Amino acid sequence: MTAAAIPSAQPRSSAMVRRAVISSVIGNGLEWYDFLVYGFFATVIAQVFFPTSDPLVSALLTAATFAISFLVRPVGGVLLSTYADRFGRKPILTVMILIMGFSTVLIGLTPSYATIGILAPILVILARILQGISVGAEFASATAMLVEYAPPGRKMMFGSFQMCSQALALALAAFSGYALATLLTPADLQNWGWRIPFLLGSLITPLGFYIRRFVDESPEYEKDTKQSTGQTPFRTVLAEHRNALLRCFGIMIPGTASNYVWFIFLPGYVIRQLKLPFTSAMLSSLIGGILLFIFVPIMGHLADRWSAFRVWLLGMLSFALLSYPLLAYVVASPSFERLLIAQAICALSIAAIWAPTPGLLAGMFPTQVRSTGMSIAYNVVVLLFGGLAPFTLTWLVAKTGSDMVPSYYLLACTALSLLVLGLAHRTRTQG
């Protein structure tokens, strides 16, 4: 199974290519930094905005708030991505970074429940909805910009920069958590310290906005949209590219599960369930993010030279085989050292999943509907296997009493991915 070849248009100057890559990486990194910070500080946010006498209820409410942004992502993401296909990548990317900046400031400045009552969680929910709308379209539009600017033979490498920015965001968000937990008392962290990462993240918004304003439109978009039929991108994708959507679903599931379970759910899980210190969870995530930042472009280069789908498949299968024994290794005797070893070993496999994914998805669709097609696939999968994962896993662990529930979830996602890809291949062959 391979993605369709992505045609190359008249190349831009090397300076403009660098500017396009930097703008995509900075903007997408900011989006994901803001998004990840909420996940990392979920245990603190639960006490500030959702105080209850039952810690489980508080955790579930916070997880539900985390999931809310994913419920609006398919709608917001598809609408904005459709706009990107009809009017260009540049304007929508510029707007999205402003939306994310505003929502991040809103979370950082919202008073606690003890101060303003029910208005506090309402404002947080509103901010999460705005974050969901922005992030929902960011992946597809930024990926389209990257692969459409890439020179021939380097589409997977350039697409991997999308995931590099997420790895960098993971590292920065984890570093902020580690630094604050180390420097501040638990009381100060809960009272005001947790707000600092949100406010600092919002300061990058003007820089990202400025850089995106001065990036030329994608060369492939300018060339290929002249051939547009005038039909809406959303309708075209559903009518003509259903098999491509199915293949994208299969490819997206493992990467989504690995991200949201291993790097977003796991830190809070080891704190809450395995009783590890907050600093241990953050430091291990920091190192994991750094390793991903190093490994992802290497895997992107291999995907261009070898085979994108083979690199992805090797990463998926190796991660599926490693996740259970490594989690069992951590659960058997919880410690920072064991958690770090598990994060480090899995980083290479996850990098192999992440790196070719953007390029593979982009290659499934023609330029005129690329952003929309990727957005549909991305947001549906992320809603089902990402946004709902923390809530689902928290509930399952509480009900079953098993500390191994996350690994079972990852194995189930792997099996489902292979099933969907098999179905897509069969449908395509019959067609």
CATH architecture: Up-down Bundle
Order of helices and strands: HHHHHHHHHHHHHHHHHHHH
Q: And the CATH topology?
A: Growth Hormone, Chain: A
Distance between the termini: 15 Å
CATH superfamily: MFS general substrate transporter like domains
Integer count of domains: 1
Uncertain regions: pLDDT < 50 for 5+ in a row?
none
Largest sheet: none
Instruction: Give the overall shape.
Output: globular
Radius of gyration: 21 Å
CATH top level assignment: Mainly Alpha
- Residue share in helix: over 70%
What does this protein structure show overall?
By secondary structure, this protein is mainly α. The protein has a single domain (14-430), classed as MFS general substrate transporter like domains (Growth Hormone, Chain: A), CATH 1.20.1250. Helix content is 83%, strand content 0%. The chain has helices at 14-40, 42-49, 55-87, 89-109, 113-116, 119-149, 155-183, 186-193, 195-202, 205-213, 219-224, 233-240, 242-272, 278-305, 308-332, 336-354, 357-362, 370-387, 389-400, 405-430. The mean pLDDT is 84.
